[in-house]
Every structure is written in structure tokens, then in C-alpha cells.
Amino acid sequence: MAKRYAVYKGLQRPLIFKGFKGKFIYWGVGALLLGLVAGSIIMALVNMYVGAIALIGLIVGGLFYTAGKQKGGLHDKTQAKGIYIHQTGLTNLKSYGTEERI
Is residue 40 part of a domain? Predict the structure, then answer.
């Protein structure tokens, strides 16, 4: 007789890592990589200490920005207020196919 196992039902929730949820995990990784690359370039071109300060500032700033955007919600969208009328191009369908083809 086959054994039955309980199915894990928690897959409908967003992935959480170190306090970042869903897409903001990728934003945090992007902030880390951007800080490392920009800091290393500044270290090579300007000065080691200036580059280290820029590296720390970019990483911390990027993570704070990501955490701030995450508070808006995982599906944060701008809510446009007003009535918008979209023109349709259906009036040109009457002439479609009336040309003679060679």
C-alpha cells in the first residue's frame, strides 16, 4: 500500500529572505551588486577610502530604498484618478479587403 504524505500548501505566499519579500529580494541583490561594482570602480579610479565610503553608502542606501518601497506593498501600483477615453481604430475595418489584389 502506498504511503500518503501531506502536501505543503504554503507555496501561495511570497518568498521571504532576511525580511525582503518576493520581487524585493532581487532588488536587494541588485543594490548589493551595484554597490560592489560602483565601489570597486571608484576605488580603482579615485581613492581606496573614497571608494569604500561610496561602496558602503550605495549598499546601505539601496537596501533602505528597497525596504521603503516594500512597505508600499508587493503589488504597489499608481492609482490614476480621472476618466480616460481610448480611441479605437475599428472604423478602418470597413475598407479592409476592398482593394483589388493582383
Answer: yes
CA 48/CA 39 separation, integer angstroms: 9
Which pLDDT value is given to residue 81? 82
Question: Which of 72, 40, 45, 68 shows the shortest CA–CA distance to 56?
Answer: 40
Q: What is the mean pLDDT of residues 16-22?
A: 79
Per-residue model confidence as pLDDT tens digits over 41-57: 999 999 999 999 999 99
- C-alpha span between 26 and 17 (Å, rounded): 10
Q: Report helix, strand or coil for 8.
A: coil
| Torsion over CA: 37, 38, 39, 44 (sign) | positive
Q: Structural domain of residue 53, as residue ranges? A: 23-71
Q: How confident is the model at residue 12 (pLDDT cuts 50, 70, 90)?
A: low
Cα torsion 36, 41, 47, 51 to 10°: value is -20
Q: Considering the domain boundaries, does residue 84 fall inside one?
A: no
